[in-house]
Amino acid sequence: MAKIVNFTIDGKDCIAEEGLYLVQAAKNNGVYIPTLCNYEGIKPKGSCRICTVRINGRLMTSCTTPISDGMKIESNTEEINDLRKAIIELLFVEGNHFCPACEKSGNCELQALAYRFKIMVPRYPYTFPQRRVDASNPKIIKEQNRCIMCKRCIRAIKDEQGRSLFAYKKRGHKSEVVLDPVLGLQMSDELARKAMAVCPVGSILVREQGFIQPIGTRKFDKKPIGSEIEMSQPTK
Amino acid sequence: MSKPVIATTSLAGCFGCHMSILDIDEKILDLIELVEFNKSPIDDIKHFTKQCDIGLIEGGCCNSENIHVLREFREHCKILVSVGECAIMGGLPAFRNGIPVKECLREAYLLSPSVQANHEYIIPNDEDIPMILDKVYPCHEIVKIDYFLPGCPPRAELIWEALVALIKNRPMDLPYEVIKFD
Q: How many other C-beta atoms lie within 10 A of the C-beta of residue A116?
């Protein structure tokens, strides 16, 4: 059995198995650390930086940091929450996030984080970039206006031979996550649904599935993101 | 003490936010006890007749007239509030941002299948018609906006609570369900 270590998050005493990623260790102790590019079950990437915490005085991403004994972690502080808000606001102005017209609204994690942090307006100017909608695949639509480059789909959606169906294309500010046109044609309905669920925003959409859930019954209509973790009892 | 004065307008909006103001149901009776309306589509006063305390702005700025009205509101109102997604980020009209204006006008007046009576192929260009802007601007990118109420439309409860908080000078304590972007 792995060694059990002690650590604190915002002064709360916690215990976890040594080597567990901090996000998971915190979750097991009933503490929610906001994440966006992280998805349970796939290899962490640490690209969005929303799960940034201060560990023993240094800022680090908690999705990629294994827990060790005696860590002193600050997460829910004014300074760190403002950094998180700044990232969310940047993501909102960097793409074209028209929530009222989005199929994923109410189930979107980016939007849910904005709700949780009570973001009324981004502090940065909107850029309104010109992006395309790729509707060439018969099963799914790739809406580039909403893509936040979290790479969740690249990491999670693979065929039987382990090949990623999604990939990066172009470079710098022109980068986009695209669906492989050949592999994409062999995509099963189940994998298409999984891709839509893995996407934190409304960038991957299964055809004919938009707006099927009525307002009021969607994932983040009634409860803030992370509240299920905060309500849960710590697991040992 | 005289009642606080409220002005409202709909710029590049759909009047949905104004409908949401009306959606406060019977509290509208309390509202008219609390405040006096000046320039607003609700009482159909077309021009400011005095300085106002609160200005509620629905919709973003898509043409020169919107900018003119918005600046007029800034001059006449102590507090300006962006109400709804369009005022905050351009909303659905901002879907055209990124498409050249020429292309938008050609599609709307010449190429669209619903264009039937435009036999002379004219894009309206009378000088009395407000000039369309290169893109739709959020209100806070044109003038200083003091508060923002998101939603499409903002829930009636949010508008009501915000107004009462402003009028009575007290903090807002809103339940989670009230702040939504859709």
A: 20
